[in-house]
Specification:
With 202 residues, this protein is mainly α. The chain has helices at 2-37, 46-68, 76-107, 110-138, 149-165, 175-201. The protein contains six helices and no strands. Helix 1 (2-37) packs across helix 2, helix 1 packs antiparallel against helix 3 (76-107) and helix 3 packs antiparallel against helix 4.
């Protein structure tokens, strides 16, 4: 397990400067593409032709989404930059979190320690799924999208009964927040307490 943790540490140590350098290069490329799109650079020059032939085709999916949302095609490079930066941050955070979980598991002693870690991971996954649901509703992402379908599948069993008692009011749906509070402050401590009593009693 210590070898695995060392590998994670090496990967993170390599990725941080690499992603920062990549973000710098992408920023430069997309800034030039924006200059070409807004005709601040000669649209008939070699730079403009190069970018229209190589960079613009890569940005087509983002451009379509921007236009569908009512934005300008010329803003697609900045949205692409946001995707790259946020994607890099999320990747680093996920790897850092996985490394922390591996370290936590390595430090767990006995059946109770391992079971407690697994329970914590399970509840954390459910809490993350609730956050993903909320973000998806903010950006009008369909629940059937491959990006968020898993989150709805993991949490619908909690949300549906809560909505029977507290239906959405106008644009506000409090059920994910209530489910998150129930998970974090009631169910998880209760399950951990029951596990402790069960193992120590056994």
């Amino acid at each position: 397990m210590n070898g695995t943790l060392a590998v994670f540490d090496l990967i993170l140590e390599f990725l941080r400067p690499t992603l920062a350098a990549l973000a710098g290069v992408v920023t430069l490329v997309l800034a030039v593409d924006w200059l070409v799109r807004t005709r601040r650079l000669n649209p008939f020059g070699p730079i403009a032709r190069f970018f229209r032939g190589t960079v613009d085709p890569i940005l087509v999916p983002i451009e379509r989404r921007v236009v569908r949302a009512g934005g300008l095609p010329s803003s697609a490079p900045w949205w692409a930059l946001a995707v790259v930066v946020i994607g890099g941050i999320v990747l680093l955070e996920v790897l850092t979190y996985i490394r922390g979980m591996a370290g936590e598991l390595a430090g767990a002693l006995g059946v109770y320690g391992v079971a407690r870690v697994l329970i914590r991971w399970t509840f954390l996954l459910l809490e993350i799924a609730l956050i993903v649901r909320v973000v998806a509703s903010w950006i009008n992402l369909s629940r059937y999208s491959g990006w968020v379908r898993w989150a709805f599948g993991l949490t619908e069993w909690m949300i549906r009964p809560i909505r029977r008692f507290i239906p959405p009011v106008a644009m506000f749906d409090l059920s994910p927040l209530i489910a998150w509070v129930l998970l974090a402050y009631i169910l998880e401590p209760l399950v951990e307490r029951l596990l402790s009593l069960l193992i120590r009693g056994g």
